[in-house]
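Researcher: Structure for this, please.
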Amino acid sequence: MSFDVTRVRAAYPALAEGHLHFDGAAGTQPAAGVVEAVTGAMRHAVDNRSAAFAPGRRSLEFVAAARTAVADLLGVAPDGVVLGPSATALTYTLARTLGDTWRPGDEVVVSRLDHDANVRPWVRAAERAGATVRWAEFDPATGELPTGQYADLVGERTRLVAVTAASNAVGTVPDVAAIARLAHAAGALVCVDGVHAVPHGPTDVPALGADFFVTSAYKWSGPHLAALVADPARWAALRPDKLRPSSDAVPDRFEYGTPSFPLLAGLTAAVEHLAGLNPTGRGDRRSRVRAGLAAARAHEQVVFDRLLAGLAALPGVTVLPAPAGRCPTVSFRLAGSSPAETATALGEAGICLSHGDYYAYEYFQALGLRERGGAVRASVYHYNTVEEVDRLLAELDRLASGGWRMTG
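Model: Predicted structure, token format:
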């Protein structure tokens, strides 16, 4: 069955405003079911977690349902799902906890392709422990992250390898499973940033070999919440800083403070939305989520192919290199215009794109583009259409023919 993008778009109230959203890598619009779940939760009595009375039991149900929803999305156990406000916050918590076990001479491997949320927490934890940071380099000519280099980077003193499942700058999809095998052979743990990968296809965390895997719900039609998952036994072996009276259970002890119960309701609704993307999907929610995201990925590829071909045909547009098989994300620069000017002009035309370094700090630093304003990013999500791509390309063509003076 073909992907019914008209039906899918009708599930996003924000699209009625008429903006063209090519900034899914920065955050997607919430689905209607998510909005309804959040507001519905706020219309009813919800107290802090307690089994003693109904409003307290309701909050317990929100938490349990959210853990189960994330588990169905990623193929993990619900009691291995740690919930939190953002991928950055959760990764810092994990880095501080693991870093307390490191000693001088230990090593940590990070990648210059990654979002800084999967770099800086590990660099700082290594600095505090006196551990050594080793860097995996991407190929600037192809945008690839060569797997072979990890054989030299990982050794008997490696304690952790941090790598992205997909670059939020150019969409590169590293061979995470192969990198994880090399790391595990040396006894190292693997933390995978799945924030940009999860929205664009089915995810199987065990198959990737990730010991820890993080995702953000607002990148897949949900609210501003995140989840960091691991085997429950892995969590049980770790002792984070925590308040003395707070729960010492797993995974609760890794979650600070009282969560936003309405947002947790929205997270669950977002997974339900993904499970409904393919109306012919059958079976349990995990199966339906996989079918929905597979259908969405096929649609996104058609839209993205149109975008890549159109950008390549535009004079004055320089596309940053990335390999085939990437997530549907592209970064580019327009001659005669800084990235900020390009994004602003497109914004005035109702077209939303990100610009700058998008927190892919090391990537743009390595290319020498950070001081020149970075680039402009177009990220396709399953509610985008080829007609929207054509509007974007036409606007870029108009801007390119305007002869703007390069300022970046």
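Researcher: Any notable elements?
Model: The domain at 34-273 is CATH 3.40.640.10 (Aspartate Aminotransferase; domain 2). The first strand starts at residue 20 and ends at 21.
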